Amino acid sequence: LISGLRFNQISISTAVPYSMRRPELSENSHMSPSRLRLFRRLFFAHTTSFFHSNEFDVSPVGHDDISLADMYRWKVSAYAPCSSTCTSGISTSYAMCVRYDGVEVDESYCDALTRPEPTHEFCTGRDCQPRWETSRWSECSRTCGEGSQYRTVRCWKMLAPGFDSSVYDDLCEAAGLARPMERKACKNKACGPQWELSEWSECSARCGSQGTMKREVRCSVEVSLCDESQKPNSEKTCTGPPCDRHWTTSDWGPCSGSCGEGRMSRFIACRNLEGKVISNSQCDPATKPLAVHPCGDKNCPAHWVEQEWEQCDASCGRGMKTRLVLCAGLENGVYREYPEKRCEASQKPEEQAACFRRPCSTWFTTSWSQCSKTCGAGVRLREVKCYQGEVLAQGCDPTSKPEARQMCQLQPCPTEAPEDACEDKATANCVLVLKVKLCSHWYYRKACCWSCRLKS
């Protein structure tokens, strides 16, 4: 009789968690002691009310009639705190299982199939704090021995959602952030004896002929300690430039004085077919036009006429310079050259003179290191030193300094490796970012780089 009754439209099974309800409850049903005690309280409460009354609508004191659907239900909470502490983030709602009187209970009492889906919305946190960002360390400045590595350090700040920018360093310093170091020491294998080379000289050949190029080869320590069998060549053959060079002249300038003293001069340049001025050594000296003419009178007797000095024959230090001295004059305004004996009445000017160019400081380089990568784009390094004689110096021409770093690529990589910097930030909820499809947003694509890349 009792098992077939319903009290206040509440079945006995209502107090059992939803996940444990069965068509019937037997002695073999598995129920925790706490839930069994709840079952018994409800059972005896209703049976007691039944035997003390002849009516079927007896209610427990303080309870209204409650339907089965309203005994336990899902309740959507307010949104959780913003996922980002600054700028934009995501706030997510969540559902909790509550009893008819509003008390939160275990989720197993509610029907999982009717649980509401969480909702998400953007939220804004406080102003973002600045931070230091660093680049990767450079290669060691020396291929052997002790050197230095460098990196760039900048202050960054998120100014607006999706807008991360570098800012003045003062912002990071004012926030009390310790500046990361920009330089650190690095050490490679000890520098043993090695050959050091100067740059190749110009080819000695004229156009269309063969010549030689030379360079200095020296040992970084005592010559006896360097391997002579590995010594690089100090001379090699070369072919002169194409025969497209020619001399060009400017207009004559004004006369500087009277006959015998007066001179007219003009500029002489060696040019290629494109009209570009090149070294005078690239044009034939035998065909070089005169740069200086006598002047001062229509008829000017023979006298010594000095041409301009040629360049010093030494690239540095002491050398000799030469010039052409001619016995020449004018007849009816026309330039004429005469035998030297016509001018012997006066002393012939010097045709040679000592000259001195900058101190002999020369750039020397070591051989290139191996490429830093076995595939793809890498770099190779070498040491560049300035020597004056046998001593390291500072007098080398900086404009002609050989490069110390060079790009290299041994072979293409089979597949492009992922960027080293592409990783998920620990502060980002990347599972949620993927779920609400935020990888198209600049900020979240960067914060969850690895997850977004795998998803795509």
Automatic annotation (TrEMBL):
The gene is Adamtsl2. InterPro entries: ADAMTS_ADAMTS-like (IPR050439), PLAC (IPR010909), TSP1_rpt (IPR000884), TSP1_rpt_sf (IPR036383). Residues 418-456 form the PLAC domain. GO terms for cellular component: extracellular matrix; extracellular region. It is found in: Secreted. This is ATL2 protein. Transmembrane segments: none annotated. It comes from Neodrepanis coruscans (wattled asity). Gene3D superfamilies: Thrombospondin type-1 (TSP1) repeat. SMART domains: TSP1. Keywords: Repeat, Secreted, Signal. Coiled coil: none annotated.
